[in-house]
Amino acid sequence: MLPDKILDRYRVTKGDGFKLADFDPDDSGNVDFEKKDGQELLEVGVKRLSRLQQRLYAEGRWAVLMVLQGIDTAGKDGIIQHVLTGVNPQGVSVHSFKQPSHLELAHDYLWRAYRALPQRGHIGIFNRSYYEDVLVVRVHPELLQDQNLPPELITKDIWKERYQDINEFERHLARNGTLPIKFFLNISKKEQRERLLARLEDPNKIWKFSAADVAERRLWDKYQSVYEDMIRNTATEHSPWYVVPCNKKWFARLVVADVLAEHIKALDPSFPKMSSEDAADIDAAHKELLDEEK
Ligand code: AMP
Ligand code: MG
């Protein structure tokens, strides 16, 4: 488990003055440990998360919505795999947001997100999310033209309006028992180059490569600026962003596991209490089973 203060430094709850450049993707919290210690800490972190998830699941009131955003190779898939390993799969749902289908494009952009929300007691993971509609769609305005909107609704204010919609959507979720926690996985341009090269050169990784990854990389600066604007406009108390340094994968996983655990702990979910009737039933069942021995 990482000291709380380390998590605090990645949490963004208000956008004023937010600058992505203030967050170093190479950071590993100035904590005095190496990758190997980090892996051991992650095991501890995942066990703790798993115990907390059991309570969340048993209580069945709150849901946690974990939103993962980040440029290609930032480590979204690895985080899902490593952080949620050991957590009861019955209480977890993962949804990956790809290019929208015809059916999805026949609805507003929040529709597909709404349908994929986790049920009470579950942790829902959005691998990419409705935020793509203020990211990739903003970087490639032609995608906006494919969204079948009435043309008069596409104005210069559209991104500001989407931020407002998203803030209100997330406030609605938080007010109704679905806690949004958003992670921006922050890697450097240099690290992305290494990871793309690794994909190209490793036969076990090549399936993940898409020619679009290199084309999108050419738009690196544009992406950084829309990520920054997104966080500036959608970081709130009820739905914070965590800007996670991801150049060191093991550190990023540790941060995400701890952030999730801390938020679930703060919800303080409890196992359902027994009524006196339940207690009587349990006594009777216990007695019946013991009596079988006789
Ligand atoms: P991957 O995460 O590598 O499987 O790629 C999924 C692709 O779908 C990414 O290139 C995303 O930018 C793209 N995508 C996700 N949501 C949208 C959207 N709303 N509009 C257009 N493209 C999207
Ligand atoms: Mg990809």
UniProtKB/TrEMBL annotation:
It catalyses: [phosphate](n) + ATP = [phosphate](n+1) + ADP. GO terms for molecular function: polyphosphate kinase activity. GO terms for biological process: ATP biosynthetic process; polyphosphate metabolic process. Keywords: ATP synthesis, Kinase, Transferase. InterPro entries: P-loop_NTPase, Polyphosphate_phosphotransfera, PPK2-rel_1, PPK2-related. The keyword Ribosomal protein does not apply. Transmembrane segments: none annotated. Pfam families: PPK2. Residues 34-268 form the Polyphosphate kinase-2-related domain. Belongs to the polyphosphate kinase 2 (PPK2) family. Class I subfamily. This is Polyphosphate kinase-2-related domain-containing protein. It comes from Methyloceanibacter methanicus.
